[in-house]
Protein backbone atom coordinates (compact mmCIF):
# COMPACT_ATOMS: atom_id res chain seq x y z
CA UNK A 1 0.00 0.00 0.00
CA UNK A 2 1.06 3.62 -0.46
CA UNK A 3 2.05 5.42 2.74
CA UNK A 4 3.67 8.66 3.85
CA UNK A 5 6.33 8.53 6.56
CA UNK A 6 7.65 11.18 8.92
CA UNK A 7 11.43 11.05 9.22
CA UNK A 8 13.39 13.44 11.46
CA UNK A 9 16.52 14.83 9.84
CA UNK A 10 18.56 17.65 11.34
CA UNK A 11 15.73 18.40 13.80
CA UNK A 12 13.23 18.75 10.96
CA UNK A 13 10.31 16.47 10.14
CA UNK A 14 10.54 15.29 6.52
CA UNK A 15 7.78 13.49 4.59
CA UNK A 16 8.72 10.40 2.56
CA UNK A 17 6.47 8.26 0.34
CA UNK A 18 6.91 4.49 0.71
CA UNK A 19 5.21 1.28 -0.38
CA UNK A 20 4.67 -1.03 2.60
CA UNK A 21 2.51 -4.09 3.38
CA UNK A 22 -1.06 -3.65 4.58
CA UNK A 23 -1.03 -3.90 8.42
CA UNK A 24 -2.45 -7.04 9.99
CA UNK A 25 -4.97 -6.81 12.81
CA UNK A 26 -3.39 -8.07 16.03
CA UNK A 27 -5.35 -9.15 19.11
CA UNK A 28 -7.52 -6.28 20.32
CA UNK A 29 -7.01 -4.30 17.13
CA UNK A 30 -8.87 -3.43 13.96
CA UNK A 31 -7.53 -2.36 10.57
CA UNK A 32 -9.46 0.26 8.63
CA UNK A 33 -9.53 1.29 4.99
CA UNK A 34 -8.61 4.96 5.39
CA UNK A 35 -11.13 7.28 3.75
CA UNK A 36 -9.84 10.48 5.37
CA UNK A 37 -7.17 11.55 7.83
CA UNK A 38 -6.32 14.90 9.44
CA UNK A 39 -3.27 17.02 10.10
CA UNK A 40 -1.93 17.56 13.61
CA UNK A 41 0.73 20.14 14.32
CA UNK A 42 2.26 18.25 17.22
CA UNK A 43 3.14 15.31 15.02
CA UNK A 44 4.64 17.21 12.11
CA UNK A 45 6.08 20.32 13.71
CA UNK A 46 6.60 19.94 17.44
CA UNK A 47 6.87 16.16 17.36
CA UNK A 48 9.36 16.11 14.55
CA UNK A 49 11.41 19.22 14.97
CA UNK A 50 11.56 19.50 18.76
CA UNK A 51 11.34 15.99 20.13
CA UNK A 52 12.90 14.08 17.25
CA UNK A 53 12.21 10.36 17.59
CA UNK A 54 12.15 7.37 15.25
CA UNK A 55 10.68 7.37 11.80
CA UNK A 56 7.06 6.30 11.52
CA UNK A 57 4.08 6.29 9.21
CA UNK A 58 2.43 9.66 9.71
CA UNK A 59 -1.14 10.26 10.74
CA UNK A 60 -2.55 9.96 14.24
CA UNK A 61 -6.26 9.99 13.40
CA UNK A 62 -8.44 8.69 10.59
CA UNK A 63 -11.91 7.64 9.52
CA UNK A 64 -12.85 4.71 7.32
CA UNK A 65 -14.45 1.28 7.04
CA UNK A 66 -13.32 -1.64 9.14
CA UNK A 67 -11.23 -3.90 6.90
CA UNK A 68 -10.26 -6.60 9.42
CA UNK A 69 -10.63 -7.35 13.13
CA UNK A 70 -8.17 -9.05 15.43
CA UNK A 71 -8.72 -11.73 18.04
CA UNK A 72 -11.02 -10.72 20.88
CA UNK A 73 -12.67 -7.82 19.04
CA UNK A 74 -16.45 -8.12 19.21
CA UNK A 75 -17.68 -4.50 19.08
CA UNK A 76 -16.84 -4.01 15.39
CA UNK A 77 -17.00 -6.02 12.20
CA UNK A 78 -15.83 -5.50 8.61
CA UNK A 79 -17.71 -2.73 6.85
CA UNK A 80 -18.49 -0.67 9.97
CA UNK A 81 -17.86 3.08 9.66
CA UNK A 82 -15.45 4.17 12.40
CA UNK A 83 -13.04 6.93 13.35
CA UNK A 84 -10.39 7.22 16.01
CA UNK A 85 -6.74 7.58 16.85
CA UNK A 86 -4.69 5.31 14.63
CA UNK A 87 -1.12 4.25 13.94
CA UNK A 88 -0.34 5.46 10.46
CA UNK A 89 -3.30 7.38 9.05
CA UNK A 90 -1.20 8.68 6.13
CA UNK A 91 -1.74 5.39 4.31
CA UNK A 92 -4.35 3.34 2.47
CA UNK A 93 -4.93 1.16 5.55
CA UNK A 94 -4.24 1.83 9.22
CA UNK A 95 -4.29 -0.18 12.43
CA UNK A 96 -5.89 1.00 15.63
CA UNK A 97 -6.75 -0.44 19.01
CA UNK A 98 -10.43 -1.36 19.12
CA UNK A 99 -10.88 0.64 22.33
CA UNK A 100 -9.92 3.78 20.37
CA UNK A 101 -12.55 3.26 17.66
CA UNK A 102 -15.78 5.25 17.63
CA UNK A 103 -18.79 4.78 15.35
CA UNK A 104 -19.21 7.46 12.69
CA UNK A 105 -22.70 9.01 12.93
CA UNK A 106 -24.62 8.56 9.62
CA UNK A 107 -24.91 12.29 8.77
CA UNK A 108 -21.15 12.85 8.81
CA UNK A 109 -18.87 12.80 5.78
CA UNK A 110 -15.57 10.98 5.98
CA UNK A 111 -13.82 14.35 6.12
CA UNK A 112 -15.89 15.51 9.08
CA UNK A 113 -15.39 12.20 10.87
CA UNK A 114 -11.61 12.43 10.44
CA UNK A 115 -11.68 15.83 12.17
CA UNK A 116 -13.10 14.36 15.38
CA UNK A 117 -10.67 12.05 17.21
CA UNK A 118 -7.67 14.16 18.27
CA UNK A 119 -9.25 17.61 18.63
CA UNK A 120 -12.54 16.60 20.20
CA UNK A 121 -11.11 13.98 22.54
CA UNK A 122 -8.54 16.54 23.68
CA UNK A 123 -11.30 19.10 24.22
CA UNK A 124 -13.37 16.54 26.09
CA UNK A 125 -10.57 15.74 28.51
CA UNK A 126 -9.85 19.44 29.03
CA UNK A 127 -13.44 20.50 29.71
CA UNK A 128 -15.08 17.54 31.45
CA UNK A 129 -14.34 15.98 34.87
CA UNK A 130 -12.01 15.08 36.40
CA UNK A 131 -9.99 17.99 34.99
CA UNK A 132 -11.71 21.06 33.52
CA UNK A 133 -15.10 20.51 35.19
CA UNK A 134 -16.65 23.28 33.09
CA UNK A 135 -20.24 24.09 34.06
CA UNK A 136 -23.12 25.98 32.53
CA UNK A 137 -22.71 29.73 33.02
CA UNK A 138 -18.95 29.56 33.58
CA UNK A 139 -16.39 31.28 31.35
CA UNK A 140 -13.92 29.42 29.13
CA UNK A 141 -10.92 31.23 27.64
CA UNK A 142 -9.02 29.62 24.75
CA UNK A 143 -5.69 31.08 23.64
CA UNK A 144 -4.86 30.46 19.99
CA UNK A 145 -8.52 29.59 19.58
CA UNK A 146 -8.47 28.88 15.83
CA UNK A 147 -6.57 25.60 16.25
CA UNK A 148 -8.48 22.35 15.88
CA UNK A 149 -8.59 21.73 19.63
CA UNK A 150 -9.55 25.36 20.17
CA UNK A 151 -12.57 25.20 17.87
CA UNK A 152 -13.61 21.86 19.39
CA UNK A 153 -13.30 23.37 22.87
CA UNK A 154 -15.53 26.31 21.94
CA UNK A 155 -18.15 24.02 20.42
CA UNK A 156 -18.06 21.63 23.38
CA UNK A 157 -18.26 24.49 25.87
CA UNK A 158 -21.43 25.76 24.19
CA UNK A 159 -22.88 22.25 24.51
CA UNK A 160 -22.27 22.53 28.25
CA UNK A 161 -23.91 25.97 28.42
CA UNK A 162 -20.68 27.83 29.17
CA UNK A 163 -19.64 31.21 27.79
CA UNK A 164 -16.51 31.53 25.70
CA UNK A 165 -13.63 33.92 25.09
CA UNK A 166 -10.90 33.34 22.52
CA UNK A 167 -7.70 35.01 21.39
CA UNK A 168 -6.29 35.23 17.87
CA UNK A 169 -4.17 37.72 16.01
CA UNK A 170 -6.44 37.46 12.96
CA UNK A 171 -9.69 39.42 12.75
CA UNK A 172 -10.85 37.09 9.98
CA UNK A 173 -10.29 34.02 12.16
CA UNK A 174 -12.13 35.61 15.07
CA UNK A 175 -15.10 36.35 12.80
CA UNK A 176 -15.21 32.71 11.74
CA UNK A 177 -14.95 31.60 15.36
CA UNK A 178 -17.92 33.79 16.27
CA UNK A 179 -19.92 31.79 13.74
CA UNK A 180 -19.21 28.54 15.64
CA UNK A 181 -20.08 29.92 19.08
CA UNK A 182 -17.32 32.23 20.33
CA UNK A 183 -18.94 34.85 22.56
CA UNK A 184 -16.06 37.29 23.11
CA UNK A 185 -13.29 37.72 20.54
CA UNK A 186 -9.93 39.12 21.69
CA UNK A 187 -7.64 40.21 18.89
CA UNK A 188 -4.07 39.64 20.04
CA UNK A 189 -1.10 37.31 19.73
CA UNK A 190 0.61 38.77 22.80
CA UNK A 191 0.40 38.32 26.55
CA UNK A 192 -1.82 41.38 26.99
CA UNK A 193 -5.37 40.05 27.26
CA UNK A 194 -6.00 39.85 31.03
CA UNK A 195 -7.70 43.25 31.21
CA UNK A 196 -10.09 42.34 28.39
CA UNK A 197 -10.90 38.99 30.01
CA UNK A 198 -11.63 40.64 33.36
CA UNK A 199 -13.76 43.32 31.70
CA UNK A 200 -15.81 40.76 29.75
CA UNK A 201 -16.41 38.62 32.84
CA UNK A 202 -17.36 41.49 35.15
CA UNK A 203 -14.07 41.33 37.01
CA UNK A 204 -14.40 37.63 37.81
CA UNK A 205 -11.94 36.15 35.34
CA UNK A 206 -12.10 32.89 33.39
CA UNK A 207 -13.18 29.75 35.23
CA UNK A 208 -11.26 27.54 32.82
CA UNK A 209 -8.43 28.48 30.47
CA UNK A 210 -7.17 26.29 27.65
CA UNK A 211 -3.68 27.48 26.72
CA UNK A 212 -2.89 26.16 23.25
CA UNK A 213 0.01 28.55 22.67
CA UNK A 214 2.60 27.78 25.34
CA UNK A 215 4.86 29.31 27.94
CA UNK A 216 4.84 32.82 26.50
CA UNK A 217 1.21 33.19 27.62
CA UNK A 218 1.32 31.14 30.81
CA UNK A 219 1.75 33.98 33.32
CA UNK A 220 -0.92 36.08 31.60
CA UNK A 221 -3.31 33.13 31.78
CA UNK A 222 -2.73 32.76 35.51
CA UNK A 223 -3.37 36.48 36.00
CA UNK A 224 -6.89 36.30 34.54
CA UNK A 225 -8.15 33.14 36.25
CA UNK A 226 -11.22 33.34 38.45
CA UNK A 227 -11.04 32.12 42.03
CA UNK A 228 -10.83 28.31 41.98
CA UNK A 229 -10.02 28.58 38.28
CA UNK A 230 -8.49 25.80 36.24
CA UNK A 231 -5.71 26.13 33.66
CA UNK A 232 -5.08 23.47 31.02
CA UNK A 233 -1.61 23.27 29.50
CA UNK A 234 -2.11 21.67 26.10
CA UNK A 235 0.60 22.73 23.69
CA UNK A 236 3.60 24.94 23.12
CA UNK A 237 3.53 26.00 19.51
CA UNK A 238 5.51 29.08 20.58
CA UNK A 239 8.41 26.80 21.53
CA UNK A 240 8.49 28.25 25.06
CA UNK A 241 8.62 25.29 27.42
CA UNK A 242 9.28 27.14 30.69
CA UNK A 243 7.49 30.01 32.42
CA UNK A 244 7.40 31.79 35.76
CA UNK A 245 4.48 31.03 38.04
CA UNK A 246 2.92 33.27 40.69
CA UNK A 247 2.76 30.80 43.56
CA UNK A 248 1.07 33.32 45.85
CA UNK A 249 -1.83 33.69 43.38
CA UNK A 250 -2.09 29.93 42.91
CA UNK A 251 -2.08 29.42 46.66
CA UNK A 252 -4.53 32.16 47.62
CA UNK A 253 -7.04 31.47 44.84
CA UNK A 254 -6.90 27.66 44.90
CA UNK A 255 -6.01 27.41 41.23
CA UNK A 256 -5.69 24.06 39.52
CA UNK A 257 -3.09 23.67 36.76
CA UNK A 258 -3.04 20.49 34.71
CA UNK A 259 -1.64 19.13 31.47
CA UNK A 260 -3.46 17.19 28.77
CA UNK A 261 -1.30 14.86 26.69
CA UNK A 262 -1.63 11.34 25.32
CA UNK A 263 2.07 10.61 25.59
CA UNK A 264 1.92 8.56 28.80
CA UNK A 265 -1.70 7.44 28.95
CA UNK A 266 -2.35 3.78 29.66
CA UNK A 267 -4.65 1.75 27.42
CA UNK A 268 -7.26 1.85 30.18
CA UNK A 269 -7.09 5.64 30.43
CA UNK A 270 -7.42 6.02 26.66
CA UNK A 271 -10.40 3.67 26.59
CA UNK A 272 -12.06 5.55 29.47
CA UNK A 273 -11.78 8.87 27.61
CA UNK A 274 -13.25 7.40 24.42
CA UNK A 275 -16.19 5.87 26.31
CA UNK A 276 -16.92 9.17 28.02
CA UNK A 277 -16.76 11.10 24.76
CA UNK A 278 -19.05 8.63 22.98
CA UNK A 279 -21.52 8.97 25.85
CA UNK A 280 -21.38 12.73 26.46
CA UNK A 281 -20.48 14.47 23.18
CA UNK A 282 -20.84 12.17 20.17
CA UNK A 283 -24.69 12.28 20.37
CA UNK A 284 -24.50 16.07 19.86
CA UNK A 285 -22.40 15.51 16.73
CA UNK A 286 -24.85 12.89 15.51
CA UNK A 287 -27.89 15.17 15.85
CA UNK A 288 -26.23 18.27 14.44
CA UNK A 289 -25.78 20.36 17.56
CA UNK A 290 -22.04 20.20 16.86
CA UNK A 291 -20.55 20.03 13.36
CA UNK A 292 -16.81 19.28 13.13
CA UNK A 293 -15.19 22.33 11.53
CA UNK A 294 -13.14 21.40 8.46
CA UNK A 295 -11.23 24.32 6.98
CA UNK A 296 -9.73 22.72 3.89
CA UNK A 297 -9.58 19.29 2.27
CA UNK A 298 -6.59 18.01 0.29
CA UNK A 299 -6.10 14.92 -1.84
CA UNK A 300 -3.85 12.17 -0.47
CA UNK A 301 -1.10 13.01 -2.96
CA UNK A 302 -1.23 16.61 -1.72
CA UNK A 303 -0.04 15.79 1.81
CA UNK A 304 3.00 18.08 1.52
CA UNK A 305 0.70 20.95 0.50
CA UNK A 306 -1.60 20.14 3.44
CA UNK A 307 1.39 20.32 5.74
CA UNK A 308 2.38 23.68 4.25
CA UNK A 309 -1.12 25.02 4.81
CA UNK A 310 -1.00 23.94 8.45
CA UNK A 311 2.40 25.52 9.01
CA UNK A 312 1.19 28.78 7.47
CA UNK A 313 -1.37 29.08 10.30
CA UNK A 314 -4.00 30.03 7.76
CA UNK A 315 -6.68 27.60 8.93
CA UNK A 316 -9.53 27.64 11.43
CA UNK A 317 -10.28 24.15 12.72
CA UNK A 318 -8.95 21.10 10.90
CA UNK A 319 -7.11 20.42 7.67
CA UNK A 320 -8.25 17.06 6.32
CA UNK A 321 -6.70 14.77 3.70
CA UNK A 322 -8.84 12.36 1.70
CA UNK A 323 -7.80 8.72 1.57
CA UNK A 324 -5.86 7.38 -1.40
Structure at a glance:
The chain has helices at 41-50, 110-114, 117-127, 148-160, 171-179, 194-200, 218-223, 247-253, 267-280, 282-286, 303-311; strands at 2-9, 12-19, 29-38, 56-57, 61-69, 81-85, 93-97, 101-103, 139-143, 163-168, 184-187, 206-211, 225-233, 256-259, 294-298, 318-322.
Describe this structure in words.
By secondary structure, the chain is an alpha/beta fold. It has 2 domains: 2-116 and 292-322, Alpha-Beta Complex (Quinone Oxidoreductase, Chain A, domain 1); 120-259, Medium-chain alcohol dehydrogenases, catalytic domain (Quinone Oxidoreductase, Chain A, domain 1). Helices cover 30% and strands 29% of the residues. The protein has helices at residues 41-50, 110-114, 117-127, 148-160, 171-179, 194-200, 218-223, 247-253, 267-280, 282-286, 303-311; strands at 2-9, 12-19, 29-38, 56-57, 61-69, 81-85, 93-97, 101-103, 139-143, 163-168, 184-187, 206-211, 225-233, 256-259, 294-298, 318-322. Strands 3, 5, 6, 7, 8, 15 and 16 form a 7-stranded mixed β-sheet that branches. Strands 11-10-9-12-13-14 form a 6-stranded parallel β-sheet, sandwiched between helices. It has a 3-stranded antiparallel β-sheet with strand order 2-1-4. It is globular and about 60 Å long. The model is unreliable at 46-52 (pLDDT under 50).
Amino acid sequence: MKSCWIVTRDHTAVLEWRDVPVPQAQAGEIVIRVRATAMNRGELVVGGAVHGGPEKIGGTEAAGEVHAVGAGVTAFRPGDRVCGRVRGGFAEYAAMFAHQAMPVPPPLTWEQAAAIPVSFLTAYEMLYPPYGKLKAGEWLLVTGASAGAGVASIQTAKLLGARTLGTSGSAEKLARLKAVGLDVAIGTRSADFAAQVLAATGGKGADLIVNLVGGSLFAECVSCLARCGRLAVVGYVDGVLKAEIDLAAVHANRYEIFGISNAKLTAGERAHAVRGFVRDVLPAIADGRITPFVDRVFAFDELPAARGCMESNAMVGKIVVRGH
